[in-house]
Amino acid sequence: MTNHPTPPATPSLVAVTEAVEVAEVEALLDHLPRTEPVTWLRNGEGMVGWGVAARIRTTGPERFRDADKWWAELCDQAQVRDDVDQPGTGLLAFGSFAFADQPGDSVLTVPSVILGRRGSVAWRTTVHVEDSPAPAAVEVEPRVEPTGVLFSDGALDGETWMGVVADAVARIDAGDLEKVVLARDLIATADAEIDVRAPVAHLATHYPTCWTFHVDGMFGATPEMLVRRERGLVTSRVLAGTIRRTGDDERDLALAATLARSSKDLEEHEYAVRSVADALEPHCSSMNVPESPFVLHLPNVMHLATDVNGVVHDAATVSSLRLAESLHPSAAVGGTPTPVAVALIAEIEGMDRGRYAGPVGWIDADGDGEWGIALRSASVDGAQVRLFAGCGIVGDSAPEAELAESQAKFVPVRDAVTGA
Ligand SMILES: C=C(O[C@H]1C=CC=C(C(=O)O)[C@@H]1O)C(=O)O
C-alpha cells in the first residue's frame, strides 16, 4: 500500500489592521527589519512587511492556480478585522512567480506585520496563526551597504549573447515569428552576505515612479504594471520600445520624439498592447485601449507606454493573480506569437530566467491587488546577486544596439548594489 503524503493543513490566521499616524510611518523602509522583509513601494507609498505568518511555494504550469487556491482557502478560514478598509489593508499576501512553467519556483507569502501608507492614510496590519502569540516587536538594525562588489558574466558573455540575438533575427526573417524578448544575466559578488534592504532603498529613492519590490530574494524597480485590480477596475501599463537616455535634457527630448516615430519601436509596442488587450478582453465589460503610446521618461531609459483600462465583470470569481496569469507572458517579456516566442527563448536564450520577467506583487482577501512584471530586477542569494535585463528583438534589430540596451537596463540594479 502506498502512503500519499497529506498536504499541510491551511492555518487559521487572525489579521488586524489598525490606523496609525502618517508621521509614524514616514519613510516606510526605515521601519523594515532584516528578517524576511517584503517591499512594494511607489512614490514613497505602498507597503513594507516582515516575518512569515504563512507561505506557499509552487512550481510548474499550475503555479498560479495552486497559489490562488491556497490563498482563497486561507482567506476563507481567516478572522479579519480591518479598521481602515483601503487597497492594501486587511489580510494580504505578496508573491513572486517564475517566468517559465519549468524550471522555476514561485512563492506567495503572508507577512506577520505590514506597515502601509496611501496618501494621508497609514496603517499597521498584524497577522498570526490562531492560538499562537501575536507577532512581537523586532529591532530594526540600520541597513548595511554591500561592499567589495565585483561583476562577472552570467550564463553568456556579451559576444555570445549578440550571436543569440542574430540567430533570433534570422528566425524572424525566416517567418517563424514576429518578435522575441531575449534576456541576459550578470553576476555581482559582494564580500559578505547582502542586506537586501540597502539596494531596495537605493532603487526606491532613485526610481520613485517605478514599483520598487522585494519578495523572497527577488528585488527590483519595475516600470511595468502587468495588472492592477481595484474595486472592479483593471489597469495594465504596457511598455515596449526603448531608447537610452544621454543625460542631456535637450537631446533626450529629441530622442523621445524619434522614439515616438520609430516604426521598429511602434511595431514592437503594438504587439505588446495587442497581447494585453486580447488577454484582458474576456474579463471586461468595457475597455479603453489608447490608439497611440506616450513616452515614459525614466532616469536611464525612455519607453513607449500605453495604459490599458477596463471594467471587469468577473471579480467575484477571478482574482488579480489569475488575471496576471492570463496576461503572462505578455509580448513585452515573451514575444509574438507567444507560444513560438516562449519556445525560442527556452531553445536559444541559454539561461534559466527564474522569477525575472514573472509577475510580482500582492493580493488582498477580495482578490484585488497589483502585479508588476519583475523587470530591472535581480535575485539575491547570500553574497551574490544575479541581475537580469532583456530586449525585444524584431526583424531589424541590431545585436550591438540590443547589447547596449541591455546594459542600460542593468543600470538601476547595478547602481543599487554598488551604492553609486
Ligand atoms: C524585458 C525587459 O524590458 C521590456 C519592457 C520594456 C521595454 C522592452 C524593450 O523595449 O525591449 C522590453 O520588452 C527588461 O527590462 O528586462
What does this structure look like?
With 420 residues, the chain is an alpha+beta fold. It has a single domain, classed as Anthranilate synthase (4-Layer Sandwich), CATH 3.60.120. 27% of the residues lie in helices and 35% in strands. The protein is built from 9 helices and 23 strands. The strands form 2 sheets. Strands 1, 2, 3, 5, 8, 9, 10, 11, 12, 13, 19, 22 and 23 form a 13-stranded mixed β-sheet that branches. Helix 3 (158-173) crosses helix 9 (399-418) and helix 4 (197-206) crosses helix 9 (399-418). 49% of the residues are buried. It binds the ligand C=C(O[C@H]1C=CC=C(C(=O)O)[C@@H]1O)C(=O)O. The ligand C=C(O[C@H]1C=CC=C(C(=O)O)[C@@H]1O)C(=O)O binds at residues 181, 183, 224, 239-242, 303, 332-333, 375-376, 389-392, 409. InterPro entries: ADC_synthase, Chorismate_C, IsoChor_synthase. Its EC number is 5.4.4.2. It comes from Nocardioides jishulii. This is isochorismate synthase.
